[in-house]
Amino acid sequence: MSSSSAAPRRDGKAEAVAGGKPPMREALVAAAFRLFVERGYERTTVDDIVALAGVGRRSFFRYFPSKEDVVFPDHERCLADMTAFLAASSQGDEPVRRVCDAARLVLRMYAENPAFSVQRYRLTTQVPGLRAYELSVVWRYERALAAYLRGRFAGQPDGTLRADVIAAAVVAAHNNALRSWLRSGAQGDAATAVDHALGLVQSAFGPPAGAIGPGEPGPGEPDDVMVVVSRRGAPLWRVVQEIETALGRP
Amino acid sequence: MSSSSAAPRRDGKAEAVAGGKPPMREALVAAAFRLFVERGYERTTVDDIVALAGVGRRSFFRYFPSKEDVVFPDHERCLADMTAFLAASSQGDEPVRRVCDAARLVLRMYAENPAFSVQRYRLTTQVPGLRAYELSVVWRYERALAAYLRGRFAGQPDGTLRADVIAAAVVAAHNNALRSWLRSGAQGDAATAVDHALGLVQSAFGPPAGAIGPGEPGPGEPDDVMVVVSRRGAPLWRVVQEIETALGRP
C-alpha cells in the first residue's frame, strides 16, 4: 500500500468549512500517515508532519486540534451528517430502521477510502491512546442515535431504556461487520455485511416483519401470546408453518 | 456527604493483592476524594493526596498506577470477578441469562457504597479525562461479556455478531439503570431497576419465556408436546431458534 493511496479522498464540504485550501488538509493527513507507518505513531511529532507536508505548525492546528485528530480526520463531518440526517426524520420513519440507516453513514465514510481505513484500523489497534480516542468517537455516535430514539420513544414505557439499548446494539452490529471487513484488508462488500448485521438488530427490536405500520390498528394487543402445541416428533417445517399461520405471515 | 462516608468499603481481597496494608489504600482513596471535592480533580496532585493521607509517593503508586486509577479503585477487582464468574459457567447455563448475571456484579460493586458511587459519578460527568477512562473500563466489561458469548455461540450462524450485539445491549441496559440511580442520588433500589432493564435484553435475545428447555422432559415419548409461549412481537428467527434448541437440532 503506497503512502499516496493512503490519503483520504478530498472532501469538498469539510475543506470549505476548514478554510478554503483543500489540498493542505489532505497533504497533512497523507504526511502524517506516511510517518506513522514508517516511524510509529508515538515517535512522530506534529513538527515532523508539518515538515514533510511543507507547511507551518499553525496550519496543522488550523485543521486539527491535536495529533490524535489527524488520525480520524472525517469523524466530525460524519457526526454532523448523522445528526442532520436524524434531525431530518419524519414521524413516519420507523425509528429502529432510521438509526440503522444513520449508522450506514459511518460505514460509507470508511468505504469511501478502503486503503486508508485499513491502515488506520491497524494503527488504532496498536496504539492505546488511539483506541481510547476511538472509544470516545464511538460513544458520540451512540449518544447521537440514542438521543434521536429517546425523542421518538418519549412518553413510552421504558422509552429511554429502549433507546439506549437499541443504540448500543446498532453500534455493536455495525462495528462487528465493519471491523471484520477492516481485518480482512477490505475484502468483499462492507455494505452487504453491515446490512446483514443491522438486520439482526431490526429483527430483535424493530416491528415484526409484516407488522402493520405505526398508527394503524395492530393484529392484536401488544401483550397477547401465541401458543404452539405440537407433538415433539413433528417435522420442523410443519411447526414453522403453524407459527407463520398464527402470525398471519405468508 | 462527609468525606469519611466517601471512602469505599474496605475490600479484603483487593487489599491482600495490593500488598497487605488494608488501611493505607482506603486512606489514599478517602484523601483523594476529599481533595477532588474541595479543589477539583484537575487541581489536585498526587503530592497533595499523599500529604493529606500522611504517606509517601511510592505508597500511592504501589496501589494506583495513576491519579485516574484512584477514582475507580474497585474496577480491576470487579473485572477479575466477572471473568472468573463467566469462566465458572457450565454448558447448562443459558448464555444470555449468564451475562446478565455477570453484569449484576458491577451493580453490586456500585451498590456496596452508594455515597461514594454518587460522588464519583458526579466527578466523572465533570472531568473529560475521567469520562474517557470510564469509557475504557466499560469497554473492558463489554469485551469480557462478548468473549464469553462468542465461546458459547461458536460455530453458530452469526455467532460473533450476536455475541457482540448482546454484550453491548447488556452493558447499555445495566448502565441506563445504574446511571438513573446515581443521578437520583442513589434513591430507591438499584437492583430492582437493573433487573428490569436486563429483562428487556433477555426478552429480546434470550429464550422465549415459557419455552421448555432441552433435556428437561423426556424426548422419547411420541405423544409428548412442546409448548412455545411468546409475545407476538418476538422475531421469528428467535422463535425458530428456540424450537430447534428444544428439539435438539442444530
UniProtKB/TrEMBL annotation, chains A, B:
This is TetR family transcriptional regulator. Gene3D superfamilies: Homeodomain-like (1.10.10.60), Tetracycline Repressor, domain 2 (1.10.357.10). Pfam families: TetR_C_14, TetR_N. Residues 45-64 bind DNA. The keyword DNA-binding applies. The keyword DNA-binding applies. Residues 22-82 form the HTH tetR-type domain. SUPFAM superfamilies: Homeodomain-like. Keywords: DNA-binding. InterPro entries: DNA-bd_HTH_TetR-type_CS (IPR023772), Homeodomain-like_sf (IPR009057), HTH-type_TetR-like_transc_reg (IPR050109), HTH_TetR (IPR001647), MftR_C (IPR041347). It comes from Streptomyces leeuwenhoekii.
